[in-house]
Every structure is written in C-alpha cells, then in structure tokens.
Amino acid sequence: MYVHVNPICFLCCFFLLVPITAIPQNKTDKEKANSLYQQGKNSLKNRDFESAIQAFKITVQLSPNHADAYNFMGEAYYELVQMQDAVESFEKAISINPEHVRAKVNLEVARWALPMEENRRKRIEGWPEMTLQAFSGYFNGAVVGTLAYLGTKLVGIRNDEMAIPICTSTGLIWGGASQIHWIGEFWGYGGGSHVNTIAGAIIPPFIGALVASQNHQNKEQKIVDGVAYGALLSPIAATIGYQLSKRNVLGLPRITSKKRQTSWSISTQYSKTRPNMVTLVHFFF
To answer: By the 8 A CB rule, do 246 and 254 touch?
Structure first.
C-alpha cells in the first residue's frame, strides 16, 4: 500500500518537533550546572577548596555565563594562595556581569596579594639610591616627628621646649632609619644591614649630646637640644651606614642580598599599585 506524504506537512512537523526534543537536554544541563554550583558552594563553605574549584569548573563549562560560579571559584583559588588564577576568575565574573560588586571587591584584594613582580621594577644604586634614601628619610622623619608632637598635645604635655626637640629626634632617628633601610631593600639591590643603618642614625645625636653635656648651665635642656641638632644629620648618617654595610659606597664589589620571600603586608602590596605613595605609608604599616 502506497501512502503519499505531503512534503510541506513533513517539514512543518519536523520544525515543530525538533525544539521539543531539544528542551529536555538543555534543561538537564541547567539542572546539572545548578547542582554542581550548590555542591561547589558547600565545598567552599566546608573549606574543601580543591573540590569547590572542580565543581565550579564543570559549572562554567555547562553554563559559561555563570558569573557567581566564576566569583566563588576565584575565592577558592584565593584561599589556596593561587592569586593569579583568583584574579583571572574574578575578572571573568566581572566581564560577564559588570555590576558584580562582590567580584570587584575580591579582585582588588587579590591584586594586592599578588607576589611582587620583580622584573617590572627598575632598581637603582649609587648616588640615585643614596639621594632617594636621604630624601625619604627626612620626609618620613618629619611625618613621624609631627605625629609624635601631636601625640604629646593629646596627652596634655605643654612643655614645647622639651617636646619639640624630643619629637624631632625621634622622627629623624626612628622614622628615618626605618625608611632608609626599606628604600635600599625595595628600590635598590639590597644587602645593607639594618643594624648599621640604625647605628648610623644614632651616632650624630650621640655626638650632639656629648658636646652639649659640656655646658653645665641648664644641662638637661642643652643635652636634649644637642640630641635634636645631631638628629638633623641622622638620615644622611643612616644612609652612609647602610651603603657602607653593603660595600657599595666605596666602589667595592656589591654584596647581592639573598632575597627572601616578602611576607604579605599592606605596605608591600600597596607599593605595587601606588609606588609614588609608598614612602608615605610604609613606615606606619
């Protein structure tokens, strides 16, 4: 028996049925993606970061525009200290959803925690390094000294004749020496001794105190003033102490410092993104 099938009817049935047969498959993929997403969140909550990453990876394979999955995958990478992978995951989440606030915050935090990129920072030595050390030492010393003086006002100390020279000495010796050593280690090739840097900062005030002690009239005030006058040379002396300790200022072979992995801190991370401000923030963090 021969049955004639109208081609037009056949095509209509084909185009109507094909989408219907495809719906269950798409629905299955979506259900799998949601299930794996929840599984990944549970693993992340239980601090099983490896399992969470695997679950989120499959989730984004099944649902490539799942911004939340990329964000949580980045958080898992962050907990495993795989910062580059974390950054890439957060960036992918933001590219899918530019208004993803949590991913934006996570991205900034992850970028701060990235290891320092040594090759991007041009190091200095010799007179440029010494000039930067001395200048930053005076600048940081002035900041620390000013804050110390304001602190005396807050606690009710009104004797400016003693407070001003003591705060000035503290800032130039303590703040200056700390900054000078850090500048040499971060911007230079390193290798200088922190002890020698501090010793260099202390010598001028010590000499100033010895000279002032010869005056027996109002001796205590004279000694304090002598220390303050000597401290005006502390950043320069600290710079010389640092340079001598690494045998560079005399033109002898430089001792390359053994670079240890820098521990994470606000100072080190901020310096990668705001190098022009790091002199100001380093001492306080």
So the answer is: yes
